[in-house]
Amino acid sequence: MTPHTPEPDEDNLDTTTPPQPVFHVEQALLGALLLDPHRLDDVNGITADSFSTAAHSALYTAISTLPRPDPAEHAKNTTWLDRVLATALEEARGLTASYLHALVQVCPWPRHAPAYARMVEAEHARRRLLTAAERLVHTVHDASLPHPVQTALAEADALAAVVDDIANRFPPRSGVLPRTPAPPPTAADDTEAVEEEQLLLATATARPDDIDAVRWLLPDDLTLPLHAGLWQCLTTLARRDEPIDPVTVLWEAQQRGLLDYGREPGEVLRMLAEPAGSVEHWAERALRRSLLATAEHTGRRVEAYAGDSANTPFQLVAGARRALADIAAVRTRWQHAAGATPPQQRRAAPATRAGPPTTTAAHAARPTRATR
Predict the structure, then answer these.
(1) Are 194 and 224 contacting, i.e. CB atoms less than 8 angstroms apart?
(2) By percentage, how much of the chain surpasses pLDDT 90?
(3) How far lies 225's CA from each of 255, 257, 270, in Å?
(4) Of 200, 187, 130, the residue nearest 163 (C-alpha)
(5) pTM (predicted TM-score)
């Protein structure tokens, strides 16, 4: 969300709501440049896009593109100010001469123009980061995308590029993290995910030799604590080369306290006895879902940091980089998974069913599987 952007009216540019501090900073900077255009030589790091309103952006464009006046002449008349106004009016039609004179009057110290410019640049960096994070979150929820994982990763790269650019402009200081609490992960409420994870667990129980091929799948990739615990049971038993069937998995689950999640032993046994398709297929589906969930949480964390105007650019860079590291970790595993599975297998639905299904949603979505 970008800050409120006031539009100029016929007589003034006052906002209908109290303006943000950066609005006053922009006024001070523009006033300094209108009063002494040669101070533009001391201003760097900003462009017209750095300003929070169309009127201020238009004024900065006019100031920075028009030939600078002779200082002695500028002190005696308003000729150059009139040219600035005429040029800026082409982009912002509500500007008035009175507003330009007001900008000059509100500038406390024209020689502080470089400091004002740095403040404008910092606020622009925060808005850019917020926009990039919002795009990442939006992409995760865009059901129309043909390749959601690739698109989400591309948006994550775009977010990382913004962070790198801000870091170049405001080198981060060690140990400075945002003060803003990170939002909690979005609670999973996905019936299809639950059903597919049940099929993963049952199929891995029926075909334990295939577990080693999906070592890139971690318990935290699964949406329910019980499912995560059962997957850890399966991988542990496989690593020990111990017998694997629904009964041995249930016993391992009891040793780990997993039955405390409220599931009856018989219910767990029935779930583990209903495999379908391939372990690799369901594992990749779970990892894909985990990657998108991680991307969403990363975007929301950066949104929270950038949405807090008290955070400095140094803090934003440090916090965003830490959040992006979570995507990098799951992305590496996704690349291993996608590289290990032939494309035709990744697209195909499971071809066989070793027992009656426990769910219907995944079954209905994949017509190549046998019907009940």
Answers:
(1) yes
(2) 72
(3) 15, 11, 18
(4) 130
(5) 0.79
